[in-house]
């Protein structure tokens, strides 16, 4: 899906990673995550498919990014189709739970649908979180160990 459609359907965009929690250094990049609702044809056509948008140059042009992030900053990000977001969030994916709970000042763009979604952040939590968050933490520890060995 092209940038114009992602931008038009955008409902939520936030910083993610170190910047979202004030742990960034001057060398840190800008990690962004967002959610969009694709056009109708992506819901009903067997020929149109969209799960996520990851073009860094395009993400730089989304609402909220241009005026809040320095032009020379290194930007990475992904904007999820709302259906993929719901699949991941309902499985207590740590990254999806995280983006709904970032501090308010880290939100780059939000509309009424995004605000409604954010007010229901707790509804995505279940006992699955015990397993998904533990699995995520163990994977990160393994990465750290591998890095220092």
Give a quick rundown of the structure.
The chain has 7 helices and 5 strands. By secondary structure, it is of the alpha+beta class. The longest helix has 21 residues, at 128-148.
List the SSEs and their pairings:
Layout: H1 3-9, E1 10-16, E2 30-36, H2 41-44, E3 52-53, H3 56-59, E4 75-81, H4 82-90, H5 94-99, E5 107-110, H6 112-119, H7 128-148
Parallel strand pairs: 2-4
Antiparallel strand pairs: 1-2, 1-5, 3-4
Defining key terms:
single chain; 18% strand
Write up what this structure looks like:
The chain is of the alpha+beta class. The chain has seven helices and five strands. Strands 3-4-2-1-5 form a five-stranded mixed sheet. The longest helix has 21 residues, at 128-148. The mean pLDDT is 86.
H/E element order: HEEHEHEHHEHH
The Rg value, from CA coordinates, equals: 16 Å
Fraction in beta strands: 15-25%
Helix content: 25-40%
Q: What's the assembly state of these chains?
A: single chain
Q: Quote the average pLDDT.
A: 86
Query: What is the SS-derived class?
Result: alpha+beta
Largest sheet: 5 strands, mixed
Q: Quickly count the helices.
A: 7
* Low confidence ranges: none
How would you sum up the global shape?
Answer: globular
Q: Total number of β-strand segments?
A: 5
Placed side by side, the strands forming the largest sheet appear as 3-4-2-1-5
Distance between the termini: 41 Å
């Amino acid at each position: 899906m092209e940038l114009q459609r992602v931008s038009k359907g955008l409902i939520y965009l936030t910083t993610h990673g170190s910047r979202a929690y004030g742990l960034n250094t001057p060398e840190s990049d800008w990690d962004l995550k967002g959610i969009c609702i694709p056009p109708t044809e992506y819901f009903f056509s067997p020929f149109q498919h969209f799960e996520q948008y990851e073009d860094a140059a395009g993400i730089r042009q989304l609402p909220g990014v241009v005026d809040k992030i320095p032009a020379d900053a290194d930007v990475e990000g992904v904007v999820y189709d709302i259906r993929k977001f719901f699949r991941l969030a309902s499985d207590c994916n740590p990254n999806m739970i995280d983006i709904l709970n970032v501090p308010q000042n880290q939100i780059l763009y939000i509309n009424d649908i995004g605000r409604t979604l954010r007010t229901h952040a707790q509804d995505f939590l279940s006992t699955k979180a015990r397993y998904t968050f533990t699995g995520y933490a163990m994977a990160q520890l393994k990465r750290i160990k591998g890095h220092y060995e």
